[in-house]
Task: structure prediction
Amino acid sequence: MKILRLAALAPMLVLCAALAACSPAKKEAAPPPGRTALKLATDWKGEAELGGYYQAVATGEYAKRGLDVTLIQGGPGVNVPQLLATGAVDVGVGSNSFIVLNLAKEKVPVKAVAAFMDKDPQVLIAHDGVGINSIADMKGHPILLSDASITAFWVWLKAKHGFTDAQVRKYNYSAAPFLADKSVVQQGYATSEPYLIQKEGKITPKVFLLADDGYPAYASFALVPTALIDKNPAAVKAFVEATAAGWTSYLYGDAKPGDALILKDNPEMTQDVLDQAREKMRSYGIVPRQGVGKMDDARWAEFFKVASEQGVYPKDMDYKSAYTLDFLPK
Result:
């Protein structure tokens, strides 16, 4: 898994490690004449969950809209909010709604301008034949969670289903504890862990998408500093439209250009993992065929209500400062 990509926003004080991990060592080439150069930091290494961005580069969707986009690959040592806050990159991929609201809580001048995943891919995974037929049935079962998850979607699960912290077990990003104990439930991404568990454990687990149980979060946000929004709103609009086109092409067209670029960036990735992840994003409706990138005030209000009632954010926080609907693709 991608270390869940959920950690709470770190103080914007130390940038050295992140910059060393992803900044080019050599002087960057000037963009082609007439194009606006944008550095885009992804939230993980090349994978299908970032396929729309890679596809937009590979098929020229950014270029045809006057942009010269350089992908800066993420990973465990890269903190996208830090890079944005310090101006090291122009656009960043925000993994989930908590990251967006954490930025607003810290009053970092960055906004979400689009959400390219209408559903957060977060799932809970259970064994078949143990009486778990819904997320509600997991009450009382031990659940493997990362530290970051406990202050994120776990808050929503406790509020909705009455789960308790006594159920929490430490998740070390290995499927071994889950495979060894049929009573255990494990966190994961719909596009990743279930497939790996099936391959490694030779079992077909039961998979429950939190979004299908009412979890109101978006995912895969385009995060943009307010300085860029104010200075060049046309470039922001072009970026959102090109990325939406990239996602549509990647999932519902010919994915080969994007896959080739992903495999070049991330040699550890394999084609079978890319193929099944794309299928999962389609079948779960994680990235819709229509309305890619959309957000609305009602969903944000619902998400903030649950999080603030559980003490994650002050109830009087200006959560609307975290996003703007001005650049959503038509």
